[in-house]
Amino acid sequence: MATMSSIEWTEATWNPVTGCTKISDGCRNCYAAAMAKRLHAMGNPRYADGFNLTLHPDLVELPLTWKKPRRIFVNSMSDLFHKDVPLEFIQKVFDTMEKASWHTFQILTKRSDRLLEISDQLKWPSNVWQGVSVEDQRVLYRIDDLRRTPAQIKFLSVEPLLGPIENLNLEGIHWVIVGGESGHGARPMEEKWVLTIRDQCKEQNVAFFFKQWGGVQKHRTGRRLEGKTWDEYPPSYQLKELVKN
């Protein structure tokens, strides 16, 4: 369950866990749930149980076999910090990420409470980036939870952006991704909401990445903001890439 990815801010996906449950408004049109349904219908054995949470122990060490460095989105089809993923399994995933030091791992969760609860029982090497999803003003507490973890690189995925987010405290945050919802039933995103977040990132010296406008046909709306493509990454990563090249 590892593929090259078309997601703009990563290069590959790795799914030692699949399946999830919806916990907030940002989950309403979950792309992973829709994809899992299609994969189940196609007879993919990894989705024999549909979108019910499933562990795949045989995939835990897979990134160790990838020799070319990649940015890897961990559990694009699940949430590593779901309550039904045992701590011991999460620790094994983190052990692999520590061993595979040539990769950069990007983890994203809506379950910031569990992330914070067990964060001191996990290893946090510099190649592990931890993020939380922040779809609207109501879930800003997730940022506070993230801030209190030992993760060395912390980021926000503000996608789908469902409303204006004012007074965004980005202390201790290194990267912000913003994007609109895509696919069937996509909810609209206003340009002023995006610009407000972009400006707050500028003011607080935080890298800003604009992923997409979204919509039913996202390829038509593109990902340019005020005539520019915003593909910033955390400064430490940008420096690493410059040195490498």
- For the record, give the distance between the C-alpha atoms at the N and C termini, rounded to a whole number: 30 Å
Category by helix and strand content: alpha/beta
SSE order in H/E notation? EEEHEEHEHEHEEHEHEEH
Strand content: 15-25%
- How are strands sequenced across the largest beta sheet? 1-2-5-6-7-8-9-10
The tally of strands reads 12
Mean pLDDT: 94
Largest sheet: 8 strands, mixed
Helix content: 25-40%
Q: Count up the helices.
A: 7
In total, the number of domains comes to 1
What does this protein look like?
The chain has 245 residues and is of the alpha/beta class. The protein has one domain (2-244). Helix content is 27%, strand content 19%. It is built from seven helices and twelve strands. The strands form three sheets. The protein has an eight-stranded mixed beta sheet with strand order 1-2-5-6-7-8-9-10. The protein has a two-stranded antiparallel ribbon with strand order 3-4. A two-stranded antiparallel ribbon has the order 11-12. Helix 3 (112-118) runs parallel beside helix 4 (141-147). The two termini are 30 Å apart.
